[in-house]
Structures are given as structure tokens and as C-alpha cells.
Amino acid sequence: MDYTKILKIWNPWWISKKVDLNKFKIERNKTKEIINFLKIREIIVLKGIRRSGKSTIIYQIINYLINQKKINPKNIFYFNFDQPLKSNELEVMDDLLNNYLEINNPKGKIYVFLDEIQNVELWERWIKKEYDLKEKSIKFIITGSNNSLLSNKISTALTGRIISINIYPLSFLEYLLFKNYKYKDLDIDENKIKFHFNKFLKKGGFPEVVLEKDDYINKKRLLEYFENIILRDIITIKDVNETKKLKELAHYLITNISSQITYSKLGKVFGLNKATVKEYVSYIDQSFLIFEVNFYSYSLKKSVSIQKPKKIYCIDNGLREAVSFKFWDDNSKLIENLVFVDLLRRGLDVYYWFSKNEIDFVVSKNNRLILINVCYSNEIPEREIKGFKEFEKEYKNIDQKIIITKNLEKEEDGVYYIPIYKWILKDNLLFYKEI
After folding, report:
1. Theoretical Cys-Cys bridge with 119: which of 47, 81, 103, 335, CB 3.0 to 4.6 Å?
2. DSSP assignment of 105-155, as one string?
3. Quick one: 127 and 35 in the same domain?
4. Where do the DSSP E strands lie in 344-397?
5. If you ran DSSP here, which 8-state letter would residue 323 be given?
6. 317 and 334, same structural domain?
7. What per-residue confidence (pLDDT) applies to 432?
8. Model pTM score
9. Domain-embedded: residue 279
10. What long-range pairs does 20-23 form, CB within 8 A, spacing at least 24?
11. Residue 31 within any structural domain of the chain
12. CA gyration radius, the chain
């Protein structure tokens, strides 16, 4: 099939010799990290929820290749598979690449960007074939919005051939950049930072939402994101019989962020058996809408298999606010959710723990443990400290104990109290001490 016209539409730099400024906007923090991996042979895989900015990052990289590395624009090929095609079989990928080569006849190394590649069946076989045959003459950068379709196929067909990078909605620091605000000092600029933080807390970090000022438009946009993810990343690619109940389950989980859940109890609520609930929750998790957090144990296998409830968090506070069924203000849940996603963004393994009292997050780093409780107040209940003491009776190698607060900042009895707006802007997890 002749794809000449559609390829020229998707690759306007072949003619204009440049990337449209609207395509790359404000540079994301991850862009520089990804650019650093362009020099090695491995396939770069960008994974993350829809609309989190993966395509924009691709355009930023293409802009870098053309303007900084002086790569011939005709050596750069981009295609987005998140569109209707007559076939989603491997033949379409052969057709696309062959059409590109015939149109441009590129000399030297080519850069191939394939967006939302999970929509093509057996894509990993095609990538493996081209990667192995072309050796150093081709560099692949691919993206996807379904973790199971990516991770499972990567682990079976592409082991040792990939560099995987998770893309999240904007961090608070990126949010400030998108708002064209740069603070000079966390203490001096406290009030201005808090103003932006309070907006970020409920607006979230999806780039298009952050750039849009109209709250009504943003609510409609976020609801559309949710519907799109449920339909395209779950229902259309999974064998889901109870589509209505799956959607209701997603609403329920997103509403009840930071809560403990069990599959058996959810089954009773939605009239589904335990196995089906477990399967549906995993589908929602794989679409990056939610995350399941396991109870902490020294043994990773025991932590996963132990019969304890899981805790649930949502990828983005703005999405949660738009989708959830709630009739009250629950900033404390939003703060805890924000801290969790930021821990993930820092590439950390996160668990929770409880006995008589709970620890919100047990973070493992360099064989040391960091204990974190989140209390959006300046009056800290005794239970926050009791949880630490109970944990210390059972586990060692605890590096620090942190309570993330509203404004309170101090160190007392080995516990660091850190305001949320300061903690979230620090590269160093611990704020006071580097591990």
C-alpha cells in the first residue's frame, strides 16, 4: 500500500526542514535524559498514560536532532499508530518503512519514532527483526500507553535490547516552568510557591490541562482522557465481558485513593467474583490510571503474595478530581497521592506498612529504608510517630523518618518534619540529608 501522503503529513520536516514550534513547546525534564540515550544502540521505550506528553517529548527530540545534531531531516521518520489503519498486522510496518525509504533514500543512520506502538499486533517481532538486521544504521524510539502490552512483549522478545523510561504528567517543578514562574528561594518566595502549589494540587499535571485556564474545558478534557483510556487501552485490547462494571470499578478506585482494598470486598460491591475483580484492577493498573501498592516485607516475594490489603493511588490529581464521585473536600488524600506519584517519578520502590498504626510509604533505597508519613497539618497526631516506633521494633536499616506537613518544619527525636511544598521541589528525597 502507498502511504506517501500520510507519511508526508506526519513528517513535515522533510519539506520544511524544521519542527513546528507548537509541537515541542516547553522542554520536559525527561527530554535531556532521553537525548543522552540516543548515542547508544538500544531501543528507547517511553511508557506512560495517554496525554502525559510522550509525543511532545518525541517532537522535542526531533527538534534537537535537526537543530543541534544537524541530522538531515529526511533521516528522521515518525509515525503515530493511534489512528485507524486498514490493518494492524506486521505488514503495515513493513509498508511504512519501505515507503519512507523509497521517498527519501536516506544516507547513513536513520532515527525511527513509532508512537503508540501497542496498537500493532506482534510489533515486537518486527522491531527485533529490524534491530538485529540493520545493526547500527537505525535507532528506534517507541512509545506506548499500556504497560502489559509493552512489558510482557519486551521481556519475551526484546530482552537486552531496550532502555525503558517512564513518562508521568508534569512534576510540580515542571508545572512552575509551564506557568513561567521561577522561584529564587524556597523561604523568601514561600507565599508565591504555595499559591501555585494549591492550584497544582487539584489541577494536576497533564500538560494540556496546565496550559488551559478554563476550568470547564479542563474538566471536559480530563473526562475525555478517562473515557479514552478505558475504551482504547482496556476494553478494545482486553477480553472484557462486564464493560460497565469495569468502568464503575475504575471510578470507585480513583475516588478512593490512598485507601486499602481487597479483591473479595470489591467483588461483593460490584457483584463480580474475586478472580475477575483482580483481573479488572490489573487492567486499570496497566493503563497507568491507578497503581497498586503492596504491604512491605523484607522479602519481595512475600510482600507481593502476603495476604494484606493493597493501597490504591491515581496517576494524576486533576484526573482524580474530574472523575471521582465525592461530595467533600479531601486535600489530605490529594497530598498523599501527590507524594506517592512523586516517589514513583524519582524511580523508587514504594510500599506501605501497618500494625496498630500505619506508615504511608516505606521506600527502599540503597539497601536502606526511608519511612514517610503524610499529614497535611501543623498539628501532628501521635499515631504518626507511633507507626514509626512499631516499625522499628520489627525492622532495621532505617535511614530516616519523615513526616510531610503543611507548613511545619523541624527535626525532633530523629524525625524530620518537612512542608510539602519544600519536599516536592527538592531533587534529594530526604531534603536534609543525601543517602
Report:
1. 81
2. ---S-EEEEEESGGGSTTHHHHHHHHHHHHGGGEEEEEEES-HHHHHHHHH
3. yes
4. 349-354, 358-365, 368-374
5. H
6. no
7. 45
8. 0.93
9. yes
10. 20/59, 23/56, 23/59, 23/63
11. yes
12. 23
